[in-house]
Amino acid sequence: MFPDPHFVTSNGIRMAVYEEGEGPAVIMVHGFPELAFSWRHQLPALAQAGFRTIAPDMRGYGQTESPAGVDQYTVAKLISDLQGLLDTLEISRATFVGHDWGAFVLWQMAMLAPERIDGLVILGIPHYPRLPIDPIALFRQKFGDDFYIVNFQDSDAADKAFEKNPGHLFDMMMRKNQITRQQFEQLPPQMRVLSLLKMMERTESSGEALLSDDERSYFVDAFTNTGFTNPINWYRNWSRNWRELAGINQIINIPTLFIGAADDVVIAPEQIEAMKPLVSNLTVEMLDPCGHWIQQERPEDVNRLIIDWLGR
Questions:
Q1: Among the residues of 50-174, which ranges form H helices?
Q2: What is the rounded CA–CA span in Å between residue 298 and residue 285?
Q3: pLDDT tens string 48-72
Q4: How would residue 299 be classed by pLDDT, with cut points 50, 70 and 90?
Q5: Exposed/middle/buried for 14, CB within 10 Å: 0-12, 13-18, 19+?
Q6: How large is the C-alpha radius of gyration of the chain?
Q7: C-beta neighbour count of 285 within 10 angstroms
Q8: Active centre residues (catalytic)
C-alpha cells in the first residue's frame, strides 16, 4: 500500500512527500516520466530495515507544484528543492537514491552541495565527465534531430503527443525484456537512435508490460492531470546546466553504490567504466537481465543491494 503524501514548502514550492519508517534518512529521487510512486517497492522495504525513507514528487511532477517557465527547471533549482526538503524536515544530511534524471540531479548535487549527502545510491546513469562542448550540439551531431533529447529542445511535439495519449506512452515505454544489449548493438545505427515520437506512432512493442493495471492507472492519472511540458522542461535546461558546471571539480568522494542494468540500451558499458576514475569510493553492481526501469523491474534485488550497502 503506497502511503498518502504530506505536503511541505521547499524552495518556495509546495512539494508532495511520501514517507515511511524511522531512523537515518534515505531520500529517493525519481526520473522521467516517473513519480515518487516509482519507489513503491523500496519505501516499505527500507522502512522495515530501519530507515526513514522519503520520496518526493519532484518539481513539475505529480502533486508537487509546477511553476511555469523553462528556467524554473534547472538542476540548480532541483538541488535547491532537495536542500529545502532537508531543511523543512530538519535533516542535516541524508543518503540519496536516484534513478534516471534523479541520478543526474544527484551527481550534480554531489559536486555542488556534498555537505548534505552521507551516501549516494545511483541507479542506471553513471557520472559523466563534463564534455568540452555543449552536449546538445554533440547529441545533434551524433544522433540527429530525431533523438528524443534533441527533439525536446526543438519543439513541443512530444509534449502534445504524450498528453494526447499518456496511456499509450506508458504501454510502449515502461516495459521489460524488450531487447538485450547484444541484440541492440547488432541493429543498424539508425535504429539505435531513441525517438520517443516514433515510439508513440507504433501500436505494438516487444517485451512485457512492467506495470499492473492499477500501477498503470496511477501513472496515467497523474500525468493526465499535470501534462508533460514541465517534466520535459528538465531536458530543456541541458545546455544551461552544462554551462553552470564550468570550472567545478568533477571528482566525487562521497561513498557511492552504482546499480547498473545490463540491458539498458541508453547506457553503454564503456560509460560505466569511464565513471570509475571520477568516483573515489565506488561500489558497482550490475543486474542482468535488467532494462532501464531498474527499481521497478528488479525490486527485490535493488532493495537487497541498497540495504546491504547501507548496512556496511
A1: 75-88, 101-112, 135-143, 148-154, 157-164, 166-173
A2: 13
A3: 999 999 999 999 999 999 999 999 9
A4: very high
A5: exposed
A6: 18
A7: 15
A8: 100, 292
Compute the distance between CA of residue 218 and CA of residue 211 in angstroms, rounded to an integer: 10
Q: Are 178 and 206 in contact (CB under 8 A)?
A: yes
Residue 93, domain CATH:
3.40.50.1820
d(CA 304, CA 121): 13
Structural domain containing residue 38: 6-311
**73 within some domain:** yes
Q: Do the domain assignments include residue 163?
A: yes
Asked if residue 117 lies in contact with residue 254, where contact means CB atoms within 8 angstroms, the answer is: yes
Q: Is residue 302 part of a domain?
A: yes
Coil, helix or strand at residue 13? strand
Kindly report the pTM of this predicted structure: 0.97
CB neighbour class for 1 (10 Å; exposed up to 12, middle 13-18, buried from 19): exposed
Decide if pLDDT at 23 tops 90: yes
**What is the average pLDDT across 264-293?**
96
- Name the one residue in this structure whose C-alpha cell is 554531489: 110
Cell digits for 107?
551527481
Among candidates 46, 34, 37, 26, which has minimal Cα distance to 2? 37
Q: How far is residue 83's CA from residue 108's CA, in Å, rounded to a whole number?
A: 13
pLDDT tens-place string over residues 156-176? 999 999 999 999 999 999 999
Structurally, the chain folds into a number of domains equal to 1
3-state secondary structure 210-253: CCCHHHHHHHHHHHHHHCCHHHHHCHHHHHHHHHHCCCCCCCEC
